[in-house]
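Re: weekly structure request thread

Next one in the queue (466 aa):
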Amino acid sequence: MSLIFFVISFLILVGISALYASENAITRAKSEMNPIVVVRSALDADNYLDIRNNNLRLSEKLERMIQDERIVTWNQCVEMKQKSVNFDSYTVMEDDRGSTSLNYEMNVSLFGNKTSDCIEFHNGSYELTEGRFYNEEELKYHDYVCVIDEKLAEVNGIKIGDTIITQSFTNSVDVEDSEFHYSWKVIGFYRHCIRKNPQFSETRQIIYDQELQENAIIVPGTTLAEISAAYMNRMEMILSEREKSEAIHWEEEDQYSSEIILMLDSPELLEPFIQEYSRISDGIYTLESNNALYEKYGKPLNVIQYFSLIILAVVVGNGILLILFLSALQIQNRSNEIGIYLSVGVPRHKIIMQFFIEMMIEMLIGTTIAGMCALWIVKPLNDQLLALTVIQKQTEFLDADEDLSYSEAEKYFSEIDPEKILDQFQVELTGSEIIACLICEGGILLMSLGLTSPTILKMKPKKILT
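Done, posted below.
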């Protein structure tokens, strides 16, 4: 019996250790994810009227979503390239041919958010070094205030309270140079904290770095949306006059990105948040997080977890049947002993308890030996399980020779290294695994004893001894 318990205990310890290792690795990997949810319109847009209608319907749903206490902040941005007027831009980087990222006339990037906050200041991409960010009142009244890159300020000797001027049109026969000039009061400086992202190819990383640090000026989103709408409408007017067609009229709301980025309080909230708001989407929006990216790289851990559960289910199921059979056989072989006990007046429950204690001692002997053997096999088991997994190193992201288009929201996702995820997998034999094993075996023992006890209760001493 001790040998049987040894085999059962050993297999249970191996299964539980692998299961706990995979669950802990999954938990640790998910805890390092950026708690970002991307809201995208699920409605088709064939023309600008459809786009406007989609944005309005999405905005109605968003109003409820952003009130959720799990959301730290959110981005719905508008971006625009403009030309510096009374200050100079600075060169960010050069390639091997000596060309720079500033080889176009629109040499500064204006970035505005629909809120008086910004995810970049929460995820470590930006850091406010002096002054302040724009507030709700400045956002509400479309004020012309800005927070600029500290390098841009340093190159131009700009101080807090100074005014910089940008222009949305370059020289054109249709537009006066000063017609679309904008004066911005500098209220703060910020710096970039560039981090390498294992998701990105070298080409993609360069593009990402440029977008983050290329002479970026942060302004109220409402102000920039108003400017962008005026720019678009002037362009439409120019084109309609040339082509003698009807001009499209763009509104401020049309200028914001269709992707809305939500930052939650912790990664553990991602899955329940997405499940809750996916149920009430009404087909208007879809929710996405880089949990899907983790699932892609975490498949080996999921496979290990799946097979560990199968091993435990098979071992426990067969263990119950096997112990039940051996218990019944043992009762049958010791029927004379049971008959003697009953004939001298020993209560039946004490006989059952004696069998239980005997089996418990045999179980502890088998478990102790199994634990010693499991300690010896833990390290080889860990290495073997990792060797059997296949790390998916190919990504669906940009490679150097592929198209340079990608989702803007991807840069908010976590930096996930597939090998690092598997490094989190460590099979160990600790007290929790041993306790779990004893609970499983105790359950097997109790179930088997519960099924065999009626046999003892029905035994008649006279019939046995005659």
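Residues 93-103, 390-406 have pLDDT under 50 and may be disordered. The chain is about 50% helix and 15% strand.
Next request, please.
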